[in-house]
Amino acid sequence: MSSFTLEYNVMDVVFELNYSGNLYAIKSTIITNAQGGNLPNGGLKRQVLQKNSNASNDYSWNYSYYDFLINCEYNGNEAVITNGDVLEAEIDGILIYRFISNSTNSNGYPFEDSFYSTFDNGVLSNLIITRG
Asked: Is the pTM of this model over 0.85?
């Protein structure tokens, strides 16, 4: 077989594999105006596209919980508050705060392991993302 093309459609994204001799080319195309509305341009490195509601055109680029967990750099500033510990960190030059609760579930994981953008006078606010 000297050449062939495979096309596969998964959730409004068309993946196409072209083979000719020993050369492979892979192309993916997002189908716009599909169910759910148009997809936005942009997004930063490591961000994923997230559907925020059932409304059309309600998509946004966001980091996943694991992006924060893996890519944040802790600076050593820590605080103990009533229900757990707060660790100060940066991700892409932005200061964030990770809260890890003292209490755990039946599997031994903290009930809350979350990232916030504000920590003022012992109070966390502006939840960014939480594990779960």
From this structure: no
